[in-house]
Known about the structure:
Blueprint: E1 8-12, H1 17-28, E2 32-37, H2 40-51, E3 58-62, H3 68-81, E4 87-90, H4 105-133, E5 136-141, H5 154-174, E6 179-186, E7 189-190, H6 193-197, H7 202-206, E8 212-213, H8 214-224, E9 231-234, H9 236-247, H10 249-255, H11 257-260
Parallel strand pairs: 1-2, 1-4, 2-3, 4-5, 5-6, 6-9, 7-8
Amino acid sequence: MKNFSNKTIIITGATSGIGQALAFKLTQLEANLILISRSEEKLNQLHEQLSKKTSNQIHVYAADLSNRTACQTVFKKVIRNHSQIDGLINNAGLGIFESAHLTQTNDIDRMFKLNVYAVIESLKVMIPFFQTQTFGHIINIGSMAGKMATPKAAAYSATKSALIAYTNAVRLEIETKDLLITTVNLGPVKTNFFKQADPDGGYQKSVARYMLTADQVANAIIKNLFKRKREINLPWWMAIGAKLHHQFPTLMEKLLNQQFNKK
């Protein structure tokens, strides 16, 4: 089993889903954690739960990362308070599934603010920190939707495509032997994400047998922490589908038409 007792890791969106699963698992592996989420109440509850399981440091910071100023402010506060940070997992995200012309402008703004701009603002602060430190691992949570867009996910897919492209460009700018950056591209994961993305539960029912769990995703991320890994793509068969779609888009869209229209 890995031991991260000498590592300090930031997790955004830490109070539910993948972020929470990461927090519990990394606590078991004795990591020091810096947890960022919007709800101070939920952060304090999580802090109390985790503190019962470890003597390592657990720090919490409440911030609305969809607000650019608040996002930069909290990350500046984090680097003032912590002299060493080994990892950053940009996990906070939002999805709204709706036909392109029916998607509300406010919902589009919300998705771009949290899925894209929050990552950009966090890295504007953290990249200089990691470069001065000369080591670190940045992990950005993308989506298979960013590789293979589907109906009723036009705006969401656009945010994740932007995130993947941004991460790839940052990799070319900053990656070194000890400063790493990874994108995690996921199919559907059984989390509270779908309370907003799919409030009537229809899509979740149609893909229930394919859905990943937060624990599966957290395990895959932890397995690759502090290793050079360009992408983590889950599930594997969807990753193959995305590669085939890139090579043969028209054919794959015809073959997968029924699957694409499950939302």
